[in-house]
Amino acid sequence: MIRKPAASSSSSSSPSSFLLLGGSLMKKVLDAIKELVKDANFDWSSTGFSLRAMDSSHVALVALLLRSEGFEHYRCDRNISMGMNLDNMSKMPEMMISSPSRPTTAEILSPLCLRALGFLLFRVLDCGCQLSIVEDDGFALLYSLFLAQDKISDFEMKLMDVDSEHLGIPEADFHAIVRMPSAEFARIYRDLASIGDNVIISVTKDGVKFSTRGDIGTANIVLRQNTTVDKPEDSTIIEMHEPVSLTFALRYMNSFAKATPLSNQVTISLSSDMPVLVEYKIAEMDRLRFYLAPKIEEDEDETKPET
Length: 307
Hints:
mainly beta, 6 helices, 19 strands, 15% helix, globular, disordered N terminus, DNA_clamp_sf
């Protein structure tokens, strides 16, 4: 439930909460998850920003964490949850225009930027552009674009009452962990999707194998350990404690791969009869995680490639 800000005579000149981050980052994050999650609560606190939501089929879980330390400037005086439509929200940063001049903090906090807009929740800075998101008494979001402090564009988007229960994160001692280039991850699933609907991920001492089967035939892609010293982002690292083989829906894996622009590497963590964890590290401390339940055994028999 969205919590209204307490009335205050000084609220228009002294915002209760604000933060700064790259607008392009927010756009990439929204593009990565909007296909899976339509509506979600954006949770803000003194430690950072988080989002946790399931897809409509309750098969996949999305968990986003952006810590306060990762922002150029961050302040949040109280916890707040804002329900928003992700597809609508993703359209806003597209309207941001880069500027060669980067304003100083003093300019950002000038009276022009902090004019009477109600309760200021956060402000996004991207090469001279700022995207402000405001919660006012009408529970509306007001987006304001400041370019060199001489142009302002306003957009309104209504907040939503998103009814979502607390979603626990599955815990597991993973049998196998694969770290690989995110672009290769996306390419594998894109290629396999042209053959079948499901993918079998198998990790053995020989490497990690991605397999599928469809009406036109079968496909198998095997990756082996490959450490590249000069370009660590191109390395494939496989940690196997026990062999594991699980089947997943390819359409979900292809959706996860939309997060490729966020990170050069992706980590796939697997454990028998447990959801797979697909993780993209954002900078040093932030992360976007996807959890996907494996297909049940009777479905696996139908999709398993012939050996």
